[in-house]
What we know:
Number of helices: 5
Strand order of the largest sheet: 13-12-9-15-20-17-18
Strand content: 35-45%
Structural class: mainly beta
Radius of gyration: 23 Å
Oligomer: single chain
Shape: globular
Helix content: under 10%
Distance between the termini: 69 Å
Largest sheet: 7 strands, mixed
Number of strands: 35
Amino acid sequence: MNVCFLFIFVVFSLRSCFAKRVELNWSVEYVYGARDGSNYRRSIGVNGATPIPAVHVMQGDTLVLNVHNKLDVATSLHPHGIYNNGTNYFDGPDMVTECGIPPGESFTYEINTAAQSGTFWIHGHTRHADVDGLRTAFIIHSNKTSVDYDEELVITLEDWFSQEFLVRMEYVDNHKYDNGRISANYATGLFNGYNANRTAPIKFRPGKRYRLRVISMAAYNWSVFRISGHKMTVIEADGVRSMPLEVDGLNLGPGQRNSVIVTALNSTDFNYAFEFISTASTVNFQEDKLPKSYKGVVEYQESAPIKGFPEQSNKEMIWPDDMALQADDRQPWLTVDRTIDLPVTLYSDPLRVTFWSLGKTLYQPTIVPTLYTAMSMGELAFNESVYAPQTNAYVLRHLEVVEFVISNPFINGHTFHMHGHDFQVTEAGPCGKATGGYPEVSYRKSGPWPIRRDTVQVRAFEYVRLRLRADNPGVWRFHCHVAPGHDYKGLAVILVEAPELLQKQQRIPDQMKEMCKMQGIPTAGNAAGNPGFDLTGLPPAITLAR
């Protein structure tokens, strides 16, 4: 037998032996409590608990989630950042890849982790259940790593509102404002699940190296995290290893993650403050509302005095920028086959309710889940018309390299999340003239090995260029991860990738189709459930004016 082949066979066999099925039973149900320490309300948890415990697996394991839905509405789960290569139907967004688990029913998701390691999270993807608590960290530990550290800590940063998500959306639609801004947008910052001003100390031991996995599970607010007297070295962005980059702190948009290495000091004479700032760029400064600064302690010795932060402006500090981060595997710039322009546009209807669009129009769900249309329409699946204008669908050819140009000429910042992929972040620059006191955006370009990530910030008055290779056949959502007022209001597109291979290589589980039938949702046909291009019965698109 060839020695090289024998070696590969033995390595594969060993990995197969050590890989395992990690099985969890999740009862998704309503729970009551005051996560922010003051507002007792209904939220969503698992097995009677909120916050939901983090999930840890080794790379190569299969995470088996047996989900029972005890809510009074359908639910689904999305493993944020996971490729789901070959199992597009486990991706989670309702009316895109599934119909959701009906009340009282159960379903099992299987998440393969062979191709990935790093920092991810799992959250609800039906009716924005994540905003009400259906979210937790998901860590895939690498079988081999060149990163040297002694211990690791998972840090989750959240915003928590005093009302349930759909109640807050009534504020948006009915124009209930506070000093010109939507009063429902003021949230309490949560640090590892609880009010960030009441969090337990982060305990350091002198001289030790710590990997902090920092996850923004926020729905609306941006999150800043820093530690006084300590530098951070970024080594990961959204599950992708980066070359080391030393920074003073992190600035994460909703859905983003970073791993950093922090080296503890050699003295126990002092403890040090850490700060978590929760803010939204489009909400006017309101004392005790936004931005909110939360302080905690990095503890070396329980009785030691605490050192705070020196007076220092943001301009003097170093923050991670996607153009400065470089991919550790040194993948060069992809050569572009096609460019798709995705301008961000703000609309209002005759009642002054605002909506957003990305690219051609605003996204609205259809009668048939888009994956089911792609799987059942044969050669017509290549024609974007069968998905209806409301899905904002783009069909991608297998292995083509697509450059997406997102242009945002508004004061609202966004984070855009790509399902099923990570992408190269290659360029950013000014989009229009900054107004309202916002700083001018600078032009930046990546180095030779652009960082890849699955969630990217597009700030006020900024454009960003992304490059993606269409190597994962499926139907993937690309959307703003700011839930209140952005994603909820249509800021999304659908990517239908290599439908001819999708039809040949994947089969939707029968149980998923049965769950659709329980809810009266058809599982074949175009967006309206009809043959060909007949969209009769589809609700009309919303009439909008800019």
